[in-house]
Amino acid sequence: MAAEQTGGRPLLAVRGLTKVFPGQVALDRVDLTLSAGRIRALVGQNGSGKSTLIKILAGYHRPTNCDQALLHTDAGEVPIELGDPRTPDVAGMRFVHQDLALVDTLSAVENIAIGSGFLTRGVRIDWRREEERARADVADLGFASFSVTTPVGRLAPSQRTIVALARAMRGWRDGASLLVLDEPTASLPHDDVEQLFQGIRRLRERGVAILYVSHHLDEVFEIADEVTVLRDGRVVATEPVDALTHERLIELMIGHKLETRCATAGNADTTPLLSAVGLAGGRVSSASVTVTAGEIVGIAGITGSGREHLIPLIVGQMPAARGAVSINGERVLTLSPRSVLAAGGAFVSADRNRLGSLRGMSVVANTTICDVKRNSLRHRLLHRKERREVDGWISRLGTKTTGGAAPMATLSGGNQQKVLFARVLRLAPKVILLDDPTSGIDVGAKHEIYSLIDQAATGGAAVLVASTDTDELVRISHRVLVMRRGRIAAVLEGADITSGNIERAQTASAGSSQTASAASSRSRES
Questions:
Q1: Residue 389's pLDDT is what?
Q2: What does DSSP say about strands 93-96 and 178-182: parallel, antiparallel, or unpaired?
Q3: Helix segments in 333-412, DSSP class H
Q4: Looking at the domain 1-92+177-256, which fold is it?
Q5: SS (H, E, C) 195-238
Q6: ∠ CA 422-423-425 to the nearest 5 degrees?
Q7: How far apart are CA 144 and CA 505, in angstroms?
């Protein structure tokens, strides 16, 4: 293991941190030193121990053992007790967790004020001033304004992320010295990521120590000063970012070199399996999409373009004002998740925790929930048969879990996503709809998911994928539809599918001309 390499004044030093869960060593004698005015990236595959480390720093988990935990202050070194919920406040730590930890029924105003307290007028909360303060918090981050009085459960994923960031940012102004960001860009498009990075760099200049957890390695090279790599609960390297290459970092994370591929050639079958015509609702003003058998079509667009609402409209997760959807040639008369499943479609939601999984239920239940009849007889569930089927999917997808009986919440994000893919693939659907399918997933698991998508298309399924990750769309798509202002504004095919072309098309002015590829493909959208 490389020695800790940090610059600036040491702020937090942890030595010999170990956490053991029943049947699993999550962290094995981890050393970590964070310094003022430095950005430390923390990377590793899902299940490597990143989330456990963050939860210990936040006081959610108590370590099984810790040789030393010191906070360096102007007055000298102060021992702190990791795992104590009071420690983060004492140590000046602020967190933006991967699941954001928002209360969906409360507004952005209320969620932001939960941590710092409310402004009052006498004995009553001064809601007018609180709303003004919440709008100022969002504006300080440089993001577009949105309704701060709407329950956050109704906001887009990127807007929910902004609320969580604004809540933590209010803490910075109260003298916080360490900021922990766990996958903060998971639902942010490229432009919003750049705005976030500007804010992070300003904090670094003020002397804040930042621990930045991300599966997006391009972000690590862009924002971090040094990087710590976890694998199987151990620190395998801590290196300056300048001393690493992209390929070397991946090799450290997964323990071997990764073979990459581009999208496979599309199926010659031109049978339309998915047809959405004139869909409108949410941010989508009018969109028509056709996906043929064996084809993978990507949907790109910045937040607010309609990209984030297109698949929820198709699968009936949000109401459509108008439009029609057909699957395998049959009109879906009432758009709802149940109707889409019955018609031969299956989908994975962008919000895995809120809409995709039953976190308190087992891996078995989460895998089979959409079709339990195949493992039943005379209205009785055959549990042994069900477990055998799920064990087969766990083996096939390489899901890391203690077994089918394990609660979904105990799995890492990437392994939870594999369970959701098992749920979809066991249905053998004609149409697969994926909304940000690799959000919060490490690079190794991403490529495993890409292989599953390839295999589904090769098997004749029509696949529609909405994603904020342009590199992902380049890797898997045969066509990419780019949305702007609620409409499909450009279509990219073949050699035109590049990250640069996608990003340019996402941000082009309304009057700019489309590419020749877009023009030649218009007939395939409608």
A1: 93
A2: parallel
A3: 337-343, 363-368, 383-397
A4: Rossmann fold (3.40.50)
A5: HHHHHHHHHHHCCCEEEEECCCHHHHHHHCCEEEEEECCEEEEE
A6: 60
A7: 20
Q: Rounding to the nearest 10 degrees, give the CA dihedral for residues 115, 224, 220, 232.
A: -80
Pull the structure tokens for residue 278.
């004139």
pLDDT digits (tens, 9 = 90+) for 98-148: 778 899 999 999 999 987 889 899 889 999 999 999 998 888 777 777 899
Residue 368 makes CB contacts below 8 A (sequence gap 6+) with: 375, 386, 389, 390, 423, 426
Residues of the chain with CATH 3.40.50.300: 1-92+177-256, 274-344+429-526
pLDDT at 364 over 90: yes
- How far apart, in whole angstroms, are the C-alpha atoms of residue 236 and residue 241? 15
pTM above 0.90, yes or no: no
Amino acid residing at 254: I
Contact at 8 Å (CB) between 498 and 298?
no
DSSP 258: P
Pick the CATH number of 274-344+429-526 from 3.40.50.300, 3.40.630.30, 1.10.260.40, 3.30.420.150: 3.40.50.300
Report, as an integer, the average pLDDT of 184-213: 81
pLDDT of residue 184: 84
Q: How far is CA 101 from CA 93, 152, 160, 161, 524, in A?
A: 16, 11, 10, 10, 42
User: Cα separation of 397 and 149, whole Å?
Assistant: 42
